[in-house]
């Protein structure tokens, strides 16, 4: 790779990152505000905001735009028509590669679905999770047969439309089913009650994940197999331990399944136990104890190197962390990426979890496989760092040194610049790290800011804090040179003389 080619790649990557940041931060655009669409604005109000320079085509960092938010909030069809006819592509890919008809279907908005199809919406697309439009609708809890009649009338092939795991719409539906009405609807359309996914998991497995005992009893009554999957080693108890998004199954579900002769002490071929799954979502200590009493090892390691404590560390509650840590042989166990429970808690959980793990002897100097320390995990978060001040105070009292560089020689300055937040940079300044240190790409924090920021405030603050404007990259460029090539700054006609 030539130096010029390498430099071009770096510039492209940072320009793209900058665009994402700008779109995520432009809260002044009312069309990216869910509350705005929840108010069901009139066409006149929408046009008034467009006249102020706000875009109905812009998407935020998550890939959501005006039309998706309008569909979420169930705005009238006249509004949806207006947004599409103003130029929003009916097959535009949004969050998770879903087009507008995915969102309309998930809301059961048949009127919008009919309109979108008339305008050319494709029904043979899949999102990034492998869901077809019809499977995404049922995954979202839609139970109205009229929605699925519409799909069939427009060419849907329920037998052959499958997600990345090979699950057809019947398998997707069973874990969300409240009764057997929709299941019987799909069976009446020719789907097979003995259908399985690519791994051989059938309706009973998927229904167990949903935890509806009445559904499970009906499946057993109809002769659906309840046995363990011979290929993966998974049984319905392991599926039930997964639960759903933000939801875990109760003890009675596991007791029912065990009563059918299923083994609670089950491990998949990838090393996953029920405790691995439950530790992510359940805070019911009685359920965790139930599985330990059945012989499930709380120190079991899956193929990715994760334990139950590691899975819990990111987002579970203190009582769960305490319970599992007391049963953990090595508080500093790391997975294949070198993540420890403490690192994951610093990144995603509360200050009290961080403090507790340190009190249990967790190593504050631990590094991941790339040589990153806890400062990396404190700052490398989605959005603003969580409970930043509290965690800094806890780590500082424990003796953590925020001046130490990461494995790639980046410092807290490099990490913080990525957030484009002057308030955060002021806090970083107090750590005393050298603002002019270069990472292994030969760039200082000021260089990166010059490449990606969309205004001068971050640049000016870095200079006021001691950043050297004369420092050059490995290509001999100064911050001024990089800023001149920053299209985000160019759009704002920014005067860059202060970088001389």
Main sheet attributes: strand count, strand direction, barrel closure: none
> How much of the residues is beta strand, in percent?
under 5%
Q: What is the average of the pLDDT values?
A: 92
**Poorly predicted ranges (pLDDT <50, ≥5 residues)?**
1-27
CATH homology superfamily name of the domain at 199-297: Ankyrin repeat-containing domain
Tell how many strands the DSSP assignment holds. Answer: 0
CATH third-tier fold name of the domain at 199-297: Serine Threonine Protein Phosphatase 5, Tetratricopeptide repeat
Judging by the overall fold, what is the CATH architecture of the domain at 199-297? Alpha Horseshoe
Q: Structural class of the helix and strand makeup?
A: mainly alpha
Anisotropy-based shape: flat
Helical fraction equals 40-55%
Helix count, per DSSP?
29
Query: Which CATH class of the domain at 199-297?
Result: Mainly Alpha
Q: Whole-number radius of gyration?
A: 26 Å
Order of helices and strands: HHHHHHHHHHHHHHHHHHHHHHHHHHHHH
Distance between the termini: 31 Å
Summarize the structure.
With 500 residues, the protein is an all-alpha fold. It has helices spanning 3-25, 34-38, 43-51, 66-72, 77-85, 100-106, 110-118, 133-139, 145-153, 169-174, 181-188, 203-210, 213-221, 236-242, 251-259, 274-281, 285-293, 308-313, 318-325, 341-348, 351-359, 374-379, 388-397, 412-417, 422-429, 445-452, 457-464, 479-484, 487-491.
Describe the structure.
With 500 residues, the protein is mainly alpha-helical. Among the domains are: 199-297, Ankyrin repeat-containing domain (Serine Threonine Protein Phosphatase 5, Tetratricopeptide repeat, Alpha Horseshoe), CATH 1.25.40.20; 308-399, Ankyrin repeat-containing domain (Serine Threonine Protein Phosphatase 5, Tetratricopeptide repeat, Alpha Horseshoe); 402-500, Serine Threonine Protein Phosphatase 5, Tetratricopeptide repeat (Alpha Horseshoe). Helix content is 47%, strand content 0%. The chain has 29 helices and no strands. The longest helix is centred in the N-terminal third of the chain and has 23 residues, at 3-25. Mean pLDDT is 92; it is low at 1-27.
